Every structure is written in structure tokens, then in C-alpha cells.
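Input sequence (182 aa), recorded before submission:
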Amino acid sequence: WLYSIRIFKFRTMVQRLFPVCVQKKLDGLTIVIYRNKAVTRGNGTKGEIVNFFPKKYDLSKNRSDYPVRGELVLTRSAFNQINEERQEQGLELYKNPRNAAAGIIRSIDKSPYIDHLIFVAYDLIDCPLTVEKKLAHIMERTDFDVIDNIIPKSAEDTIEIVPIEYEATKNDDVPIDGMVIK
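Predicted structure, C-alpha cell format:
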């Protein structure tokens, strides 16, 4: 009964907002990159400057006209590997991949685990383009990985896609904590 009411409200919302896209909500640390600088989301107004970034991403090659927002994540396999190393060294273990990613990127000194982090871009700030065009812009002008983007054909299709896609991510190496409808 309660599920039916939620689906009805969800269906009404989706029909009103359609067309939409569906993306995984990655469970990491939100980072904004503008030119060759990276900052955390911080308190929503003021973030912390990120001093070290994974070598895989050369921030000097960022040619985006807009700040790129994305998620810095640690895969489950990398998280397990790091905790095994830390256990062998007698160090405190990280509690979960999200907290580990935050701790690694915020290290005062460069963490030996920094290159285990993955940056996945999902938005351009203050950009008037559609979601699809924003992601294309990111792919063309940066070296960043980009979030998968699903474009449902209808509101009903959206309602079917969300739980299926969410269920399919349970065995993914990249942790997520929900689905986003834009």
C-alpha cells in the first residue's frame, strides 16, 4: 500500500519533469575542478583546496570552459587491498571506501594510496547545456572518466529503470548510495 503511494507520487513527479536522465549516485567525495585546481565541496559554500590528485588525471590538460563537478571514489577492491596493507603494518583500518577516499585526498602529506582513487565527472557548474551535452563536453575537453548516463524513453520507462539499475550495482566495484534522476 505505502509502496503504491510512493510509486504514484514518483510517477507524477517524473511525468512532470520528463525528459530525464538516470545516473548512479557514487559514494565518494564530491570534488570540483576548475582549470588546474581541485577543491572539495566543503560546507557547500567554501571547500578545501586539494593539494594532491591521482597521477592518472593531469589537471593541466583540463580544457573545460566550466568547473567540472564529480566524485572521487575508492573501489571496493582497492579499499580491501589498502586495508590489508594497513593491517600488516599495524595501522588503523579505514571504515568504508567513502571515508577512506576523503582521508586519502585530504592528507597533509601525499598519501601512498592516492593513485588508487578514481575521479568520475558528472556535471558542469553554471553550464546551460543539457546533461548529455555536458558529459560530451567533459569527454572532449578533459581526461576524466564520465558517469554512465541512461536516457529513458518515457516516464514509465524511468520508473522501471531505476530499481533495475540500482539492483544491478550491488556487485559493482565502485560503491554507490543511490540513483539520481536529472
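Checked by second reader. The chain has a mean pLDDT of 87.
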